[in-house]
Each structure stands twice: as C-alpha cells, then as structure tokens.
C-alpha cells in the first residue's frame, strides 16, 4: 500500500481535506473520543432522551456536519474536528445499540465491525489504489475516508469494551494496556512499518484509550477514579480541544494549507510543544480538581447506609443489612439507598414520586458502569437487567403498583445478595 498516488484529482481545485498527522492530531483525537462517549451518555441517561432518540439526533447532526465538510475544498479545522467528535458520538451509540438494545455480544460486534472495516478498505483500495490519508483530495476518496473513520470508532468501542469486560481489565489497566499498544505502534512505524497500516491501527487503539482515560477521570474514587464526573471531564477536554483547533484554524487562515513539518509557523517542535502543553494542562487540572473535589466522608456514607439499610424483605433504620460478598462488585450501598426510597414510594402507591426517584438510580448506575462492570460482568448484567425492569415498570404508560413492587423487590434481593461490602 503506497503512501502517495499519482492518480489525477477529479474535483477541480480540491486540496487535502485532512490535517497533518502530528502530535496535535493525536491529542485532539484522544480528547474527542472521551467527549463523544460522555456526551452521548449524558443525553441518553442524564437528559433522559434514551438511546434511540439520542441516536436520531446525533445522526442528523453528523449528516449535517458531513455535508458541510464535503462541500469544502480544503482542510478546515473547526468543521473537520466537529465531524470527528460527532462521529465519535454516533459510532459509540451504534455499538451500544447493538450491545444494549439488540443484545448482540461484544465479541460478535467486534468481529462484525472488523469485517466491515476490511470491506471498506478493500473497496477503497480497489477504486483508488491507495489508503493514504495524505491523498484525500477527491470527493470519492473523502467518502471512503469518513466511512472508514466511522467504522474504526464503532470497532474501537466494541473491541475496547470486549477486552475490558472479557479480561476484567478495568479502566486503569485498560489505559495502561491501550497506551502501551499505541506506543508499540509508534515504535513499529519508526522501525519501518508501513505508514498506512500503523496509522489505521493507531486510530482504532485511540478509541478505547480515550474511553479508559475518560473513565479514569469520571469514576468515583472508591472505584479507582478521580471522581470529576462526566460534565467536568467533558468541559475540561472540550477546552483543550478548542484551544488546539483554534490554533490550527489560525494557521490555516493565515498561511493556507499548513505543512506542520516545515517552516516557522507550524514546525514539528512547535506542534509537539502545543500538544504536550495541552495534555499536561488536562492532567494537572484533572488531578487538581480531583483533590479539591474530594470524596464523601466515611461518616456521611455510613450515615446514609444506617438510615437506608436494605435486606431482602425489609428496609429502614432498624433493618440489619446482611452482607453476602459473593461477587467482586464491592459496596453497592449507594444504589441500595435509592432503591429503598423507591420501594417506600411504591409501597405508598406514590408512583409519580417513585418514577422521579428512580431516575437517580439510572444515572448513578450508568455513571458507575465503567468501574463496576469489569469486576464481575455476569453479576453486573443481571443487576442491569433488573434495574431495567424497574425502570420499565415505573415508566409504563399506566404503571401498575403490583408490577412496580415486584420489580423493586426483586432488585433489592439481588442487591443484598451481590453486595460485597
């Protein structure tokens, strides 16, 4: 596979439509991956749009952005990276749709997207005789490029989740492993491996790497994270992306198509300095905010548990909570507290209040997924299904108290059985 091609440009006046592959490129790519995942989850869970509505909104936004991108005739940083962020969101949602809604195993999704990416590459190479991103200078080549980008995001999501869940990696080990794979890919490139091959391998790897880094920042401290939360993490990453993209846009506006490997305006050394500064700023700000934010005190946590203890058949301050550490999920008290409140409201036949309260359970459970799921995927899935049953019962068009009570009781029993305090 050659890096360059001598085929004539079919669209008159077109210039390259993608950025130079430098340190800035990879930093923005990793940061945009995290924003894509956290923003999609925020819309689907926190805002309450659900996966189907979120998918529809993201599809419309992505289609609109791609139309603008395809109508440009040269690399325009703000629209290019907007497309990448939206592709990240939509690619993640496609994989989640397969896994969560359709019940397709992650192993199958990984295989399907791998085959699909191979098909895209095969057709692209057959038509253009190159897969080099330095030759994205015709409408057809750009179409192949964005098809490959979308597929790599979906594949990276599926493969990353599969590796994390199947191997019980967790986000900290995942960040180390995927980061090491990325470094190994760079070393292979420096030792003479093909530019095209190493680029696309790295592009897939940065998806699970970005997700692992995002989880490291967002997850609670008792799960091994820094407890920044999805909103703070997304805002932090977005600021870094905006700074780097604005710089790119200024360089392009002033000097046309910028070759960041030459000249005083965008040399490799200056580019690495900007990329390194952005990464360092994110790291320092993340750790600083984590230290300032702190975690809930043991006294407050114990007070909540004391006031909201749960057993398979009873709840309230007087109920002695049984502990059955049959899983590696750890302390599930935070969820038990919410379920206790929901049960109390359902028992009082206040289903409207129960429906409102159960939203807190949905958000808390989704936020903790990256930390809990790798510990015991089988038990996590069982609890996830039972939480879905509670949500379905309470959110029915005409909820029935008996159905809601049964679903909540089943969830409480499982929570007690699985709690590994």
TrEMBL record:
InterPro entries registered for this protein in UniProt: DUF347
Positions of transmembrane segments: 42-66, 78-98, 104-124, 144-163, 226-246, 273-292
Assigned keywords, A-Z: Membrane, Transmembrane, Transmembrane helix
Keyword Membrane: yes
Protein origin, superkingdom: Bacteria
Record's protein name: Membrane-anchored protein
Organism: Dactylosporangium siamense
């Amino acid at each position: 596979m050659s890096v360059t091609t001598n085929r004539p440009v079919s669209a008159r006046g077109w210039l390259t439509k993608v950025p130079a592959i430098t340190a800035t490129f990879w930093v923005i790519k990793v940061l945009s991956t995290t924003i894509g995942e956290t923003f999609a989850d925020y819309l689907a869970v926190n805002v309450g749009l659900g996966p189907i509505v979120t998918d529809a909104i993201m599809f419309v936004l992505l289609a609109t952005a791609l139309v603008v991108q395809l109508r440009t005739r040269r690399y325009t940083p703000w629209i290019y990276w907007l497309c990448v962020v939206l592709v990240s969101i939509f690619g993640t949602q496609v994989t989640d749709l397969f896994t969560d809604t359709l019940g397709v195993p992650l192993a199958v999704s990984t295989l399907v997207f791998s085959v699909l990416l191979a098909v895209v590459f095969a057709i692209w190479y057959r038509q253009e005789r190159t897969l080099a991103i330095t030759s994205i200078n015709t409408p057809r080549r750009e179409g192949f490029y964005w098809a490959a980008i979308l597929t790599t995001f979906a594949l990276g999501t599926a493969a990353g989740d599969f590796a994390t869940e199947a191997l019980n990696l967790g986000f900290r080990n995942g960040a180390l492993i995927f980061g090491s794979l990325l470094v190994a890919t760079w070393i292979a490139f420096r030792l003479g491996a093909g530019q095209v091959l190493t680029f696309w391998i790295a592009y897939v790897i940065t998806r699970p790497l970005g997700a692992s880094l995002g989880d490291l920042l967002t997850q609670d401290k008792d799960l091994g994270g820094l407890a920044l939360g999805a909103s703070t993490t997304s805002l932090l990453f977005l600021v870094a992306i905006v700074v780097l993209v604005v710089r790119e846009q200024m360089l392009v506006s002033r000097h046309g198509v910028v070759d960041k490997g030459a000249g005083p305006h965008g040399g490799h050394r200056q580019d690495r300095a900007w990329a390194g500064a952005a990464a360092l700023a994110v790291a320092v700000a993340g750790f600083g905010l984590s230290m300032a934010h702190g975690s809930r005190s043991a006294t407050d946590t114990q007070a909540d548990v004391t006031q909201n203890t749960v057993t398979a058949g009873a709840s309230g301050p007087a109920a002695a909570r049984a502990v059955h550490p049959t899983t590696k999920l750890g302390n599930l008290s935070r969820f038990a507290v919410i379920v206790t409140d929901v049960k109390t409201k359902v028992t009082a036949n206040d289903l409207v209040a129960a429906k409102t309260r159960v939203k807190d359970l949905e958000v808390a459970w989704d936020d903790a997924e990256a930390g809990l799921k790798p510990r015991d995927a089988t038990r996590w899935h069982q609890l996830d299904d039972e939480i879905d049953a509670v949500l379905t019962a309470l959110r029915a068009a005409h909820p029935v108290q008996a159905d809601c009570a049964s679903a909540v009781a089943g969830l409480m029993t499982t929570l007690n059985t699985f709690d590994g305090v």
